[in-house]
Structure formats: structure tokens, C-alpha cells
Amino acid sequence: MSLSKKDEKKSDLTKNPEATQVEIKEGDFELEGEENGSATLANKLKKLRAELEKCKEEKREYLVGWQRCKADSINARKEAASIAERVGNRARDFLVEDIIPALDSFDMAIASDAWAQMDANWRTGMENVRAQLITALLNQGVTAYAEIGDAFDPTLHEAVQEIDADGESGSVARILRRGYKSAGNIIRPAQVAIVAHKE
């Protein structure tokens, strides 16, 4: 029976177990004495602690950087939303400023003597158009203001003239042009005539 080279080596090892010794070269293993071993362990522990501290510091830096980026992102989103809202409000105000003169024309027509002489159906149609414009403005948060008898307020009214009329001195006697405001902001102040101061 013929054996392969591998089998031959195996059979040699089983026949003579003492021949199976491994050569140990110097430097393959480090034999440590008790003092040398504890010093090496102390050095390794010191290195590991230093690396751990370095990792902790890097973690802190990354965390602070991440938090700063997150805050910047939140602030940028808020600023973008605020800008978009201001742009939208300003665009709405421009549209309102374009519609207001049409309402002024309706108000002047209704206040004229000729209005009563117009056909009743035509007047009703014009009043409906005016009401639709006012409703559209109300839907956008825009309201008209100024009523006869209101106390004059320089932040809301422009006093165009003083007239002799019944009422408290300095109150609104006549409305020449209605004012419009939105969310507390004056889009256009009302032009009014006020009751003259009585001496």
C-alpha cells in the first residue's frame, strides 16, 4: 500500500512524538517578570485612558458642532418662514392698495345726489359689487374703519379740515375717505373732517 507524502509525515509524527517539537526563536514571545509586567500594564492603561479622554473630547466637539448646526437650521427655517410671511403680507397689501381706490369711487358715487336718480336695479348691482369687494378684503383680514362721532386719533386719521358741526370738539364730523387696516397695521389712514374747537 503506497502512502502519499502527507500521510508519510503523519505516520512519522505518530511513530516518534518527540520529533514533534516546535522551535521557539528569541523574540517570538515576551516573557515578563512581575515588575516588568505591571509596568507594561500601567503604561497600556495610561495609553487607553489618554485615548478615552481624547475620544470624549472629540465627542464633545462633535456634539457641540451638531447642536450648533441644528440651532442654525432651526433659525434659518424660522427666518425663511418669517420672510415668506412678510412677502405674502406685503403682496396682499399691494393688492389691497390697488382695490381701495375702486371702493372709494363706489363710496363717492353712493354719496352723490345723482345716485338716488339712477335705476334701482343698476344701483343694487353696483352695491352688490361693492359688497363683494369688501367681503374679499375681509377674507384677507383687511377692515375699513372711520365712523362719524369717533374720537380723532392721529395714528388712524388724517384731519383734512375742521368744520362747525354738532358733536364733541375734535371728534370725526365727516368721512372724506375711509381708512383700512390689517392685523393692527394701518394700510391707509382715514381722511376726515373734525368738529372745530368751540370757544
The number of E-state strands comes to 6
**CATH superfamily placement of the domain at 143-199:** Head domain of nucleotide exchange factor GrpE
**Biggest sheet statistics:** 3 strands, antiparallel
% residues in beta strands: 15-25%
- What is the N-to-C succession of helices and strands? HHHEEEEEE
Please state the average pLDDT score: 82
Shape from CA axes?
elongated
What is the helix content? 40-55%
The largest sheet has its strands arranged as 1-4-5
Question: Quaternary arrangement of the chains shown?
Answer: single chain
Helix-strand blueprint:
Layout: H1 5-15, H2 34-111, H3 120-139, E1 142-145, E2 157-163, E3 172-177, E4 179-182, E5 185-188, E6 190-195
Parallel strand pairs: 2-6
Antiparallel strand pairs: 1-4, 3-6, 4-5
Characterization of the model:
- The chain has helices spanning 5-15, 34-111, 120-139; strands at 142-145, 157-163, 172-177, 179-182, 185-188, 190-195.
- It is an alpha+beta fold and 199 residues long.
- It has a domain at 143-199: Roll (Nucleotide Exchange Factor Grpe, Chain A, domain 2).
- The strands form two sheets. Strands 1-4-5 form a three-stranded antiparallel β-sheet. A three-stranded mixed β-sheet has the order 2-6-3, with no helix packed on it.
- A hairpin with a 2-residue loop joins strand 4 (179-182) and strand 5.
- The longest helix is centred in the middle third of the chain and has 78 residues, at 34-111.
- Mean pLDDT is 82; it is low at 26-33.
